[in-house]
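Notebook entry, structure prediction.
Reason for the run: the old model in the group folder had no record of what sequence produced it. Starting over properly, with the input documented here first.
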Amino acid sequence: MFSEENYNHYVNADLETWLLEVKTPPRILGRIAHGIQDKINSWIPEKIHQAIAVAVENMVKAVLFGSEWIKPSPDKSMILYHREEKIRNRIKWYRNAASAEGGLTGAGGILLGLADFPAFLTLKMKMLFDIAAWYGFDTKSYQERLFLLFVFQLSFSNQHRRNDLIGLIENWEMYVYDLPADLDQFDWKTFQLDYRDYMDLAKLAQLIPIIGAPVGAIANYKLTAHLGRFAMNCYRLRVLKK
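New structure, fully documented this time:
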């Protein structure tokens, strides 16, 4: 077991490693893939983009403002090691639940595969609420829910977008009052494009008969773990500044 001082050293080192990863300049293959995605998106009529953006917006808003999911912050005297022990256990629980859900919907063909989108989105957003609470942040606050949204976007964006978003996450207290006054002003089209482009290949493969179940289980498992890691480090940035 770590002492509190040693654990804080470990957290700082882990955080620095993650920041280097997030701030890496886009690689050639990444830039090519991003260019292809942009080209494909340009072929899709604007009405379809808007329809998808509205659907994603409504789903995310329903989760963000679902008061039954808002948990009280834990005892603030709890040391970081114990907080993160609880958080890792919650991430494991959500990771396993998402994997089971992805396997089930993947085995059900196209119709159930399409149902995976809102179900998996809900699980991921619910996990962010739990992580925020364990780090001691009050998710009743609009600003904290907006932070959840940016953590989600950072996690499921290409490298170019991550380089744009990480500065906002690192300096949240500086930017928070200049951000959209309400969620209707949030850039939902960019949000859904980032999210959809990041997950396209995995989610399309999930719709294929026979291989859909294992692909869905593995994809949801990895994507949930990925979001959990990003969320922990985003909140560490704020906790360590305090």
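Summary: The chain has one domain: 4-241.
The old model has been moved to the deprecated folder.
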